[in-house]
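Review box. Two proteins, two foldings.
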Amino acid sequence: MHLAGNLSDLLLSLWCGTMDCSTTDDIGTWDWAVLRDDDTWRAHRDAVEKAGLYLPGSFHRKPCNIAEKLNTSYKTWEFQVYMFGLAPALLYGTLPEKYWTNYCKLIPGFQLMCQHQITSQDIADAYQLLCTWEHEFELLYYQLKEDRLQMVCPCIHQTSHLVSETIQKGPPICYAQWTMEHTIGNLGQEICQPSQPYANLSQEGVQRCRVNTLLSAMPELDDPPKGLPPGAVDLGDGYILLRKQDRYLLFPAVGDVAEAIQDFLGHGRILPCIKRWARLLLPNGQVACSAWRETLKSLEQTRMSRNVKFKHKGQYRFGEVLYFTRLAVEADADHDDDWQFADVAVIRMYSLPDDDLLRLSSHTVASCTHLDTISIVDVKQIISVVAMVPHRPTLPSGVTEDRFFMVEKPGLDVSNLGVPYGHGAGEDNDDNDIDNEGIE
């Protein structure tokens, strides 16, 4: 938790040129301090604020105006979403390439270590990325100069120890401070009297411990779990359809959607009447919404949650959910009923990420275009809700066009988009042989 904040503070102080400069050094030689320029800083500030409009509600707190809140009320979670989600794409073309590519090695390595479940391959990739980033960082910024020693903060070396600590203790998310900080906040909210706040806080903690101890010994005293919301449909495996829902059946309009449904059902099948559903609860706790309902509000009034990551033909793909529905299809031979529902999402696809930019960024910036292709996807192929933030980059090929870059919620499994993280990543290393299949 605090490592994300410390790394963010270090990198921003370098790029903004606010770090202390020795009398024997010249800040004018800091070619990485691109955010010292007022116009560049204002443009970046506005880009961060606009990007926050596209972050789903499941991402919790979105980054505030970084210029106004950076030194006062910028939360650690905002730093993590900004520095490890938005900044790699927003700084592309602004930060000189050698510094940007070095920075991009930190992002996937740190993201891999933030997962709840980490495989042995993830550990090998993260170790390669973080060690490479640390070594290059010292050569690019510190440059082995005595008067730049202040640039080598302890948090730089701490990143290289994440892998060894993960092997010994498990994923860092298990012992991060998020839970403790959240508990302290909850206890503080329960204080009703302003006098003797610390004594009241300690008593609230004692009472919480007593209740937890009693419930662990006698779980039958706990409140039963609440049922599903009215009108919700449990699809199994943690997927639940949530309202709103069409009141009456409707026939799919003639066009791309009708053709996609026809292809999904198979030619020769009669198109069934459908009811649209607005939302889908995923096993990870996120709620995927749909363009059918979200577009009724302005962008400023909603947290866009209709872009999803899903598996399609053996690949991770991204798409915009138009709506969810249940298609009535003939049941299988071993099914008791004549008919059953195929629970699907009608999705407008994004293209595959630009391969050159994905390689250059060490698997960090997945930049896609929005296609007109409509696909029908089984809802149980949807993995998570992601953010698709608009930007206009100049690709390594030289093409400049409007695109969308993907941001995943920190802590969720990182997408493997089929491109190596970088030279040497994932290769066998006799000095760091890892035999375990995975760590949870």
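Next protein.
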Amino acid sequence: MSAPVDHLQERLLDASESLTDIMPSAITLAMMLRHRSMAAWLRREFEGYAPETELPAYRHDVSGHIVARSPQYGWIPAPVDKQQLEQFGHLDLHEGVAELEKICMNCKKGNGHRISLPPEHLRELQQKINLTAELAINVSRSAYCDVIRTIRGTLYLWTSAVLESGLAGDHNSFSQEEKQQVAGLDEPTRFWREAAESLHQLPVPDVREAGFLERMFGRAG
């Protein structure tokens, strides 16, 4: 016998467990409980969102900084004003959990991840600021990690609600009555909104940084 809900929550609170590794178990639990909406949301988070798919708020319009590549100094802040930053310095994050977590692990705290501007935006902004240099958006590590923690926090809140409904302990499967007990908890939007609002109060761990050897040999992904 196993305790799928209890065990999943324990893993969510364990900083050594990556969200990428936890997600398949979460999807399995959602299917066992017949939480179809939760399972569908988890699959989208795990696999990534198609370009035309509507994104949850925590993945939409993520802010960054515009940087320019200097032949002499490398990447430096670009000379953009607030209006230009507002127009060009935001992006949506469509990547799956594994890619987002890899970015977090491979970025040192205080650093960020650069994303090239789309060609049409690059040309337009170059003209606006009269600069021919390569331009990119630099999104902070913390912005990526907040997305991962929001997803992890959503799962924590969901499993907490399931446990509070009496589904703790050993289960190889759940009875029809038990599934009915938690039928009203198949609401991923409710839980991710709550997670986003209380992100820094939740007990879920932050994404760890990859160690030196992981960076050298690619073990972080």
